[in-house]
């Protein structure tokens, strides 16, 4: 129902929720696993074991979004570009983002 899919070759995480904007879900990849929490204005991705490399985060969202107001892992601000294309929201990371065990990526929107 959450439509979570990870492409390890291109380092793309897709979230296509059929349950609305507010949900919590488990994710699992070959290199690690953790939880994703989505709210009206945030997406939180926490790696509980292993690691996750990310270049792009694609997601659908019922609520209209206009921009990213912040992307952080711990105290570190992450450089991103926000693109909307054919009803899909895309967060493009400037470089491959490596999330290790215990890391939490928080993306905030407006």
The secondary-structure class comes to mainly beta
Q: How many helix segments?
A: 0
Largest sheet: 10 strands, mixed
* Terminal-residue CA separation: 25 Å
Show unreliable segments.
none
* Rg, alpha carbons: 13 Å
Shape: globular
Mean pLDDT: 92
The oligomerization state is: single chain
Which band does the percent of strand residues land in? Answer: over 45%
State the helical fraction: under 10%
Number of strands: 10
Sketch the topology as an H/E string, one letter per element: EEEEEEEEEE
What would your notes on this structure say?
This protein is an all-beta fold and 110 residues long. 0% of the residues lie in helices and 65% in strands. The chain has no helices and 10 strands. It has strands at 4-7, 12-15, 23-28, 32-38, 42-59, 68-73, 76-77, 80-85, 88-100, 104-109. Strands 1, 2, 3, 4, 5, 6, 7, 8, 9 and 10 form a 10-stranded mixed β-sheet that branches. It is globular. The model has no long low-confidence stretch (mean pLDDT 92).
